[in-house]
Design brief:
The complex is a heterodimer of chains A (132) and B (502). Chain A is an alpha+beta fold and 132 residues long. Chain A contains three helices and eight strands; from the N terminus they run βαββαββββαβ. Chain B starts with a helix and ends in a 10-residue tail after the last helix. Classes of the chains: A alpha+beta (132), B alpha+beta (502). The A-B interface holds A 84-92, 99-100, 103-105, 118, 121-122, 124-126 and B 49-51, 176-177, 179, 183-186, 251, 253-256, 261, 263, 316, 325-335, 337.
Chain lengths: 132, 502
């Protein structure tokens, strides 16, 4: 399951000043795969992947540390009315989210998405968007 | 055996013509042989659906009262060409509106009209005795126009170069986003379904031939602009009444970082007259080859990285420079097939009969490059040949002195052999001073990945490098990486005010 974590780093006491992910790993023993991280002086946004069975435990620990957690389902959304099944998204996606079926119709495996956003810009028909 | 067009049209009228889509033809020929396929099949329908920038439409808006002779015309803020009679205009698909907030262009106007949406017409004029009015604004639907004739100067490329990018940054092109270091391959074209791939000799495709255009009935006008059939890059100029078109087969599109384009569905029915046509319509993706061109070279003639078939491209990945690289298409094979199948339905239903060309297209013609009468300025024409440089083992203090003494901001760094290995700027030196202490030599602070140019590079390309990298000077190197000059933003000023003469 993919979780999008956001935290503030403005104040000295803010959660983003702490090694939150390392701490969760240490306290829970759950192996966290960091797929994307964007952290600057004021805030951070981190996309992690964890086993579904550990999700509740990890979410609880993160919430206690003041991290906002959002479950990412269908992170990338396809507007089927706009999509013309060209496939421009297929080769630029680092995660192989997109593919064709036997009828050359575009298939989206959103669970693989790491929110890099390349496909959204590259789609000639503005058929892709990011949830939230 | 040969079959006459009359016989085929009689069968179409009688509702018993055998029509197949082009991608079914190879298997039919495999099974029945050429003679058998000629006997069996009357018409092969082709189709393609992809980006076709060279598209647009002529409109006649009807006369207002009092009447106006439109000199400038906008449709939803997209300017159309109005250098025609009073209320005629041509709207090009790639023309963009002057709106900073959204990318909207001629293609979007065309799609809006076909979708049944209202479009705002705005026009101005200086006023004449016969056309006194000076401005007009009105809302129009497609049905309000007297004529809305799509006329696309260049559609339906026989085949198209695939694209990759060997540079270190992502390129945003009309072939889509091209990832750095050949990270992907982008291609276009319907391969076995492509109209001209099924008649590369232009035997039955030519001026006057009826076609499917964007969901409506249309016609081939003749050769498309830039037709280069002799090199395998034939094109068609096509026309059709917009009032019969559908959004399924005409879509506005935006190529990120490039601009507006339009996706058009084109299908040409091919009468199966003899075994020569059987053979040409039995073409497979495996038989159709194209080059993968390196768009990292910002010149007209770009190098080919590999030659591959459409079967390779459509497989989803190819091997390029020893690595497996994913491929993807800009055109839609699924919609190309929908074009061919709908056209097939039309002919089976007796809605469209076939015709032979009234004007033949030259299948040997090759495109010419532009004749340029002015000489493009090159880096050597304006570069500064007095290069102040430094070696990598010098102390930073020496570099600072040299920068000050020569009033320059950039020092190319050379190794013992006199070859370029880095560059340092006043900024790098200042930074070294501030961080204080440990860094002593030029090689500790220099930028090793130098953005550079060559003496024969066109100045436009060098200037783009400056802008893209947000830098103000480029070392100029020869083939052996020896510094022969430096080009700074200041040198670019020589191009203006008569400083540069060829």
């Amino acid at each position: 399951m993919k979780l999008l974590l956001t935290f503030s780093r403005r104040g000295q006491k803010d959660s983003g000043r702490e090694p939150v992910i390392a701490r969760v790993v240490k306290e829970t023993g759950v192996l966290i795969n960091v797929e994307k991280a964007n952290i600057d002086s004021t805030a951070g946004e981190v996309l992690i992947d964890i086993p579904d069975s550990d999700a509740d435990l990890v979410r609880k620990h993160l919430a206690e540390m003041g991290v906002t957690v959002r479950v990412m389902e269908n992170a990338v959304v396809l507007d089927e009315a706009e999509c013309i099944d060209c496939g421009a998204c297929i080769s630029i996606c680092p995660q192989e989210v997109f593919s064709f079926d036997d009828e050359w119709r575009l298939q989206v495996n959103a669970a693989r998405c790491v929110l890099c956003g390349r496909c959204i810009l590259a789609c000639p028909h503005s058929a892709l968007s990011q949830l939230g | 055996m040969e079959k006459s067009l009359d016989l085929i049209n009689t069968r179409i009228r009688d509702g018993n013509a055998r029509v197949v889509a082009a991608d079914e033809m190879p298997a039919i020929v495999d099974e029945l042989g050429e003679e058998g396929a000629l006997e069996e099949v009357d018409v092969v329908t082709t189709g393609t659906f992809g980006a076709m920038c060279s598209s647009g439409a002529f409109f006649n808006f009807g006369h207002a009262d009092p009447p106006i002779r439109m000199e400038r015309v906008w449709l939803n803020d997209v300017e159309a060409y109005a250098g025609l009679a009073a209320v005629d205009a041509y709207l090009g698909a790639t023309q963009e509106a002057d709106s900073p907030n959204r990318v909207y262009g001629g293609a979007h106007v065309l799609e809006d009209l076909i979708a049944g949406n209202t479009v705002e017409l705005r026009a101005t004029s200086h006023g004449t005795d016969c056309y006194p009015r000076r401005s007009i604004t009105t809302d129009l639907l497609l049905e309000d126009m007297n004529q809305a004739v799509m006329l696309n100067p260049r559609n339906s490329y026989q085949c198209y170069d695939a694209a990759a990018n060997s540079t270190d940054r992502t390129l945003y092109t009309y072939m889509g986003s091209l990832l750095p270091r050949c990270g992907n391959v982008s291609y276009s074209g319907a391969g076995t379904l492509s109209p001209l791939a099924n008649d590369p000799g232009f035997r039955v495709i030519g001026g006057g031939v009826p076609i499917f255009l964007a969901g409506g009935e249309g016609m081939v006008v003749g050769e498309g602009t830039q037709n280069s059939a002799g090199g395998g890059f034939g094109t068609l100029m096509v026309t059709g009444d917009m009032k019969g078109m559908r959004q399924d087969f005409l879509r506005a599109a935006v190529m990120n970082g490039y601009g507006v384009t339009i996706y058009v569905g084109v299908g040409v029915p091919i009468p199966v007259l003899d075994t020569g046509i059987v053979r040409s319509t039995a073409v497979r993706d495996e038989d159709l080859f194209t080059d993968i061109i390196d768009y990292g070279t910002p010149r007209r003639d770009r190098p080919s990285l590999a030659r591959v078939s459409y079967a390779d491209l459509r497989s989803g990945s190819i091997e390029l420079c020893g690595e497996v690289v994913r491929t993807s298409s800009l055109s839609s094979y699924r919609r190309a097939r929908a074009v061919a199948l709908e056209l097939k339905g039309w002919i089976e239903a007796g809605r469209m009969e076939l015709a032979l060309p009234t004007r033949r297209i030259d299948s040997t013609k090759r495109v010419k490059p532009m004749r340029e009468t002015a000489i493009t300025p090159r880096v050597r024409d304006i570069m500064n040949r007095q290069v102040i440089s430094i070696t990598e083992d010098e102390e930073i203090r020496v570099a600072a002195k040299r920068l000050l003494k020569d009033e320059t901001n950039h020092l190319p760094v050379l190794n013992d052999d006199g070859l370029l290995v880095g560059i340092i700027t006043t900024f790098d030196v200042s930074k070294a001073v501030v961080t204080d202490g440990k860094l002593r030599q030029v090689k500790d602070i220099m930028t090793r990945k130098v953005v550079k140019t060559t003496p024969d590079e066109p100045v436009d390309i060098a200037a783009r490098k400056l802008k893209q990298n947000n830098i103000s000077a480029l070392p100029v190197v020869d083939a052996t990486n020896r510094v022969v000059g430096i080009l700074s933003a200041i040198d670019l000023g020589k191009l203006f005010g008569g400083g540069w003469r060829q």
